[in-house]
Every structure is written in C-alpha cells, then in structure tokens.
Amino acid sequence: MTVSDALRGRTVAVLGGTGPQGCGLARRFAAAGLDVVLGSRDAARAESTAAGLPGRVRGAANADAAAAGDIVVVAVPWDGHAELLTELAPALAGKVVVDCVNPLGFDRQGAYALAVAEGSAAQQAAAILTGSTVVGAFHHVSAVLLEDPDLDTVDTDVLVLGDDRAATDLVQDLAAVIPGVRGVYGGRLRNAHQVEAFTANLISVNRRYKAHAGLRVTDV
Ligand SMILES: NC(=O)c1ccc[n+]([C@@H]2O[C@H](COP(=O)([O-])OP(=O)(O)OC[C@H]3O[C@@H](n4cnc5c(N)ncnc54)[C@H](OP(=O)(O)O)[C@@H]3O)[C@@H](O)[C@H]2O)c1
C-alpha cells in the first residue's frame, strides 16, 4: 500500500517506541518510507532501538519526539499514560495524537478491561490534550506480528475512532501503509472503551488458539 497524499512528508513519532508495540508500528511505518522518531524516557535507549530498525528511524527523548512528530502515536503502558501526556501536552498541541493504549488488568483468569474515569484511555488523552486532536487506533494489532521482519503483511483491520473526520481519515491512511492492514472508521471517541476492552477478548482468543488474532469488519 502506498503513502497517501495527506500522509506524504509527515513525520510520525512514537512515544514509548522502545516497547514491542511502538517499535513494531515504527518498523512498519518506516518500511513504507515515512520518517519516524522513536520516543523514550531515555534518549539513548530510543537511539539504540532506532538503530536496529531499517528505514528513516531515529530515537529521542519522548519530549523531543513529541515536538518532532506531525502525528504522534502513544504506545506506553496504561500506568504511565496520564502522567506522560500531562507532561507533554504543550509539545503535543496542534498535532494528531493516536492512542493505542488498552487499559487492561490481568489475573489468573486472564485479561480484563479496567474501568476508566474518563470512559477510555483515548478519552483520557483527549481530556488532557485539549490542544490536540486525539484519535484511537491500533488497539488490536499484535506487536509480535508487527515486529516480525519475515512477515510481509499483517492480516487485520484497524478500527479508527475520533471526532474529527480529517484526523480519522489521516489515521486510516496511516494504518493502510502496513501491507495487509485496512483502517476502518469505528465511531466517535466516546465509543473507544469497547474497542480498548475488546482487546481482552482477543487475548483470550490468542491464549486458547495459540494465535495472534486480528479483526476483520465485513461488508465495508
Ligand atoms: N503489545 C501489544 O501487542 C499491544 C497491542 C496493541 C496495543 N498495545 C498497547 O500499546 C501500549 C504499549 O504496549 P507495549 O507492549 O509495547 O508496552 P511496554 O513494553 O510495557 O511499554 C512500552 C514502552 O513504554 C515505556 N514506559 C514504560 N513504563 C512507562 C511509564 N510509566 N511512563 C512512560 N513510559 C513508560 C517504556 O519505554 P522507555 O523505558 O524506553 O521509556 C516501554 O518500552 C500499551 O498501552 C498496550 O495496551 C499493545
């Protein structure tokens, strides 16, 4: 899949880009020819992670990555989400912020969705980042598949949620740069909770069937 006109020339930053999800997304965005900046709490760690990826990927402290990105993906654990976004809110103003964070708990029965005061991680991001346009996406894509350099395509749709049509269109384009992936509009941000929570169901599927399950929306 080619990079759309709307996406061409944009830099994608990934906060928490040293983890499997951020690193996997970065690998795929860079493979499509996009400029990518990996963010970390430790710039040196981001630089060394970036050095291991092909394409135009560099590493930086999260604040510098946030400043450099036109589109900024948030790929940190739920535990650090509010704190990091509060700190970076000024740097993220005016940007499209893509939240893929799933607030989940784990116990002996497996994964389960946590209650979030704002409704969802994406809504929490929007409440903190009042100067940014927040979009929810990439919740269900397996980091294992994204990170696998031998896998040319990733077989899944990505649900894209948000309240700004131009921003959700842009993030659908971003999803579509990954071969095999289609970005599908999935509703307003107020419906992000179910999408984030559904990840717990997918984790149950994965455990039962020893899979890295994705999601396909039919008839669109
Ligand atoms: N793994 C998946 O398959 C998957 C799929 C879909 C969505 N997600 C979501 O994507 C997010 C990242 O997943 P992951 O598996 O990559 O997570 P992770 O490895 O636990 O964390 C990602 C990175 O976040 C940084 N980090 C850790 N604790 C932090 C804190 N308290 N504050 C700020 N930064 C912190 C770390 O980077 P530094 O130490 O370098 O700063 C870490 O490498 C999660 O919210 C998850 O729900 C994951």
TrEMBL record:
UniProtKB keywords: Oxidoreductase
Any GO CC annotation of this UniProt entry: plasma membrane
Cleaved signal peptide residues: none
UniProt domain Pyrroline-5-carboxylate reductase catalytic N-terminal: residue ranges: 11-103
Molecular functions (GO terms): coenzyme F420 binding; cupric reductase (NADH) activity; ferric-chelate reductase (NADPH) activity; NADP binding; oxidoreductase activity, acting on NAD(P)H
One GO BP annotation of this record: NADPH regeneration
InterPro entries given in the database record: NAD(P)-bd_dom_sf, NpdG, P5C_Rdtase_cat_N, STEAP_metalloreductase
Coiled coil regions, renumbered to chain: none
Matching Gene3D superfamilies: NAD(P)-binding Rossmann-like Domain
Name of the molecule in the record: Reduced coenzyme F420:NADP oxidoreductase
